[in-house]
Amino acid sequence: MNTRGPVTPAEGETFAQVLAALKDEYGTNDSRIAERIGAHVSTVNNWAHGKSQPRPAAIRAISREFPKFTEERLFAAIGKRAPAPLPPDKRAAVLEVFDRLTEEQQEMLLIQASAVADTNERPA
């Protein structure tokens, strides 16, 4: 295993390319990655072959388990900007406001927030 710091991203790299670089950097394979992040090996294999892309939770798990590969790089490889971390005080504030909403308002807010998050495309 290499002991250098974070690996510099290449402009325009795909998630499959990032995953190949990760496997090379850490001397690992799809099975070990899947085991470490709690995913099925076929899921990781699909990412490796460009058949699908990971969801945000999987990207966070990959970055946590393989810290040389930052969330910023992993998200960029799927054409997204990395979401900002939500500190505990802000999380508590969001939940406090959410708890004051009616069921219909909560549903509407979730739909709106999901739509905004889905537009989180990486700038060209």
Written description of the protein model:
There is one protein chain. With 124 residues, the chain is mainly alpha-helical. Helix content is 58%, strand content 0%. It contains 7 helices and no strands. The two termini are 34 Å apart. The model has no long low-confidence stretch (mean pLDDT 89).
The poorly predicted ranges are: none
Task: Provide the succession of SSEs.
Answer: HHHHHHH
Strand content: under 5%
Helix content: 55-70%
Q: What is the CA-atom radius of gyration, in angstroms?
A: 17 Å
Question: In this structure, how is the largest beta sheet organized?
Answer: none
Mean pLDDT: 89
**Count of helical regions:** 7
Properties at a glance:
mainly alpha, 7 helices, 58% helix
SSE layout and pairings?
Blueprint: H1 15-26, H2 30-37, H3 41-48, H4 56-65, H5 71-76, H6 88-99, H7 103-118
What is the structure about, briefly put?
The chain is mainly alpha-helical and 124 residues long.
